[in-house]
Structures are given as C-alpha cells and as structure tokens.
Amino acid sequence: MTDYSGPNLTPGYTNPPGSTSELLPAEILAAIDVPLYLSTACDTAARVESADVPDAAGWARRLHQRCRLNNKYTGADCICTCHDAGR
User: Fold this and answer.
1) What's the whole-model pTM score?
2) Number of H helices, E strands in the chain
3) Among 55, 56, 59, 67, who pairs with 41 as Cys (CB 3.0-4.6 Å)?
4) Measured at the alpha carbon of residue 42, what is the angle toward residues 40 and 48, in degrees to the nearest 5?
5) How far apart are CA 62 and CA 42, in angstroms?
6) pLDDT tens across 33-71, in order?
7) Which residues make Cβ contacts (< 8 Å) with residue 46, sequence separation at least 6?
8) How many CB atoms lie within 10 A of CB 78?
C-alpha cells in the first residue's frame, strides 16, 4: 500500500505554486483523459481585467501571481497566456 501521508495532509498547510506533492500516481494519470487546466486565480484575473473597477489591472496582476501553475492532482500546466509573457 502506498503511503499518502505528507505535508499536504497537515491542517493549515498550503502547497507552494508548482508543487506536485498531491499528484496522482502515474498509472492513474495514464488511465484518464486529463482536461486542460486554467487555475482559479488566472480565471478570476481574466474576469477582473474586463471589469469596470478601480485598479483592475493591479488586482488582475496580483491574482496571476497567485496561480498554482499546475493542477495539484493531474500536474496539467495552467493554460493562461500570462505564463507565456513571463508575468
């Protein structure tokens, strides 16, 4: 049996962006169709960018900086174009 204990199971622990500690095992990933991934932070940033609110660009920039970069379960990279621009 695989040991799934680790820092990701510690109450209050937050995995850093890009962490793969919760990634599913390779045999499971190979058996499923992994969808494209857009992080919640980047999705929200895109919505804020188009909103008519004070400092929308600043809020969106901060949200993009909070992106997980990859899906914590599948490892799929975030498809947001902000990553191509080097933030």
Assistant:
1) 0.71
2) 3, 0
3) 67
4) 100
5) 10
6) 999 999 999 999 999 999 999 999 999 999 999 998 999
7) 60, 80
8) 22
